[in-house]
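Researcher: Good morning. I'm working through a list of sequences from a screen, and I'd like to move beyond sequence-only analysis. For each chain I'm collecting a predicted structure so we can compare shapes side by side. This is the next one on the list. No need for commentary yet; just the structure.
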Amino acid sequence: MSAYHSIELCYLSAVYTNLLITGEAMDFYFKPMPKGFKDNILRVAPDILPSGSVKLTAVEIDGKPYENFNADELTVTLPDSDSSVRVKVTLTPTEK
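Model: Good morning. Structure tokens for this chain:
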């Protein structure tokens, strides 16, 4: 259990430092289960970021650019598939 909390703290500190303090974009990777999300909507927002502080600026599905996403809502509409897909998203801080 202590490892979980240590890893979570490291993840959140990297997210908050990069996105909110140093203003650096970050890539996040997902491998969602097929038909595992209501309406095939994958929500990619890290926990407790201030509303409007980041935008979803790029998405790749299985290594290819993908355009079916909402930059402000931080959501990706996954393609209809019977197998897992690899999803890479880039979150970029908004200008202050």
